[in-house]
Amino acid sequence: MNRTQVVVCIGCGGVGKTTVSASLGYMLADQGYKTLVLTIDPAKRLATTLGIEGTKEITEVPGIQLKGKLYASVIDHQTVFNDFIKRASGAGADVTPIFRNKLYQQMSTTLSGSQEFTALEKLYSAYESGDYDWIVLDTPPSKHAIDFLNAPQKLSALFNDSVAKWFRTSEGGGLFSQIISTGTRQVIQILESLTGSEFVKELRLFFSYIHAWQDKLENRIVEVHKLLVSPNTRFLLVSSLDEVKMTEALNLGQEVRKQGYLLTKIIINKSQFEKTFDFNIGPEHATSQESFKQLDQFKDTFEGFIRHREELLHKFENSVSDKIDLVSLKEYLDPISDTDSLKLIAFDLSQKIKL
Ligand SMILES: Nc1ncnc2c1ncn2[C@@H]1O[C@H](COP(=O)(O)OP(=O)(O)O)[C@@H](O)[C@H]1O
Ligand SMILES: [Mg+2]
Fold it and tell me: Which ligand is nearest to the CA of 23?
């Protein structure tokens, strides 16, 4: 029985998924767990802090003293896809021609859904290893965050679609050979004369590979899905305190739950201030009557801003089911990229979240 627990951080772009993932990893490692954070496109300084800048390997985060252990890795889509193909092709298979195939190089990481697939693939292989108590998965910045959930199926459908079938060549007369024998040869010839025979050859080869991986890919998607809906996995939705992002977050949250995933917490990032402000400024601080008036106006505006944020927060609270905890996180003045700032958020999280 695999004891590894998984947290998947989802949400729209820019809300703080990568930051929260790294901080959560820090928190769990500091609670004594062996923790792995799988990040996607972390900012350069954060990657340096985590010790994963310029490497695709899983690395122990350097320079911190924790009760447990913290590991991190950047998900490199091409590497993960290649690893998957190596395994799917079986031990001893020569995968060099596949990796050299121009279409494979182009399409393996740009096909719709393939980055989401590689993120989940990396999660699954780390999970399968049984090496960690906790794995925290950051998710790719997709335009519509909900795409993350459906992407692997979409990729599989694409692998399985009619274009692939059309080009597929199989022994004993697959579609491709049928087409050839029923006069489509001319079409292919025209295509070859237009684009160069190399292109068609590569295309045909590419689709024949795809055919070979289809079953493996589908099996993997089923396994990954089982993990995602298992009690070992919880989703953590991250949002910021702004009307548009909140609406998207609420829709995403509903969809996630509808699809049977465990979501009990929403983090509203940057919704509290790091410092409190003291506006009890006496006349002695103002250099003139005029500047005193300006300060007063600023105070009014600022208080209006705070009220607006409080209203948004209430609206949020009223819109989610009471089965979901809303967790407000502070907005820090400095960027969250060094160990100290991660530690700060991790501490803030540990006061508010029990996974
Ligand atoms: N609580 C916070 N306080 C201050 N800055 C934050 C906080 N959370 C995130 N940030 C900053 O916001 C930016 C976007 O965060 P990031 O985690 O990369 O978002 P995402 O992964 O959702 O795109 C980064 O520069 C990060 O340092
Ligand atoms: Mg990110």
Answer: 1
